[in-house]
Amino acid sequence: MSEEPPPREQGPESPQTSASQPGDTGDPGAAAEGAPEQEDALASDEADDADKVGEALPFAGLAIALSFLTRLPLGLREAPPPGTLARAMGTFPLVGVVVGGIGAAVYALAHQVLPASMAALLALAATILVTGGLHEDGLADTADGFGGGADRERKLLIMRDSRIGAFGVMAVIISMALRATALLEIGDSLGVGGALVAAHALARAAIPVAMQALVPARADGLGAMAGRPSAVQTGIAVTVAVVVAALALPVSAALAALAGAAIGCIVTALLAQAQIGGHTGDVLGAVEQSAETLALIGALAAL
């Protein structure tokens, strides 16, 4: 294999360095200034895209939230720009109203011809079908990681494994059993419907609260890619959820459900901070499940 000739040294007058390209001023200083200008232009374009999405919120925000948190066919063909989901989190409780309302409708219809126990299970099955088991999957992965990992890295690795382990199975079974029992004990369709709508709204509001309180545990995880909701979006989510709970339940039951959701969110967030130093998409699913379950239990205690 022949050797290549050594590169020819170029002086300041070399054509390769002095010749100007089309559109080039020939001024090195101008070229140096051009790069930051191009970067600024790209950043401006990205900001414009984000602003266009932001201008459409909350209407587009609700569609984005529904498409992310449910399996409802909304016809959205393109993924929103990074960070858009965080700007839509004020609408998360409204997604809870939709999901809880579907569960309430199934319970009311089933309770006409079936025992309350079967109606409760069918209502829970309906909510899981609507969401694709998104939050139950997060709860299972979180339980497996926290229960089976010896250190932070191992816990995060287990949480990324698509297979479900013993801790995950037990966590989902306990969650389902507690929620079904709460609905069964409430009994009447009106009370069950109100409890479902309130619990699902409050549980969806717990997600941005946890994201405000914790930092992402991974730089490349879904929780990090979604972006961090602003204090305004978090406040909107909490306010909407509280209003929904107050409309769906008697005042005492609404307050009890709110207390239960708050306890579920806080305890799960503290556990995640201690275990992995932040949140992941799975942890946020576990936050929703804990808040929803304890909100139903709180409503049952006050009804």
Structure, described:
This protein has 303 residues and is an all-alpha fold. The protein has one domain. It contains 14 helices and no strands. The chain is globular and about 50 Å long. The relative contact order is 0.12.
Instruction: Spell out the helices and strands N to C.
Output: HHHHHHHHHHHHHH
Strand percent estimate: under 5%
Question: Class by helix and strand content?
Answer: mainly alpha
Helix percent reads over 70%
Outline the low-pLDDT stretches: 1-57
Q: How many individual domains?
A: 1
Radius of gyration: 26 Å
Largest sheet: none
Mean pLDDT: 84
Count of individual helical segments:
14
Please report the distance between the alpha carbons of the first and last residues.
87 Å
Could you tell me the number of beta strands? 0
Structural shape: globular
How would the blueprint of this fold be written?
Elements: H1 15-18, H2 28-56, H3 59-69, H4 84-87, H5 92-110, H6 116-131, H7 134-148, H8 152-160, H9 166-186, H10 189-213, H11 222-225, H12 231-248, H13 251-276, H14 281-302
Q: Any key phrases for this structure?
A:
mainly alpha, disordered N terminus, about 300 residues
Q: What is this entry, summarized?
A:
By secondary structure, the protein is mostly helical.
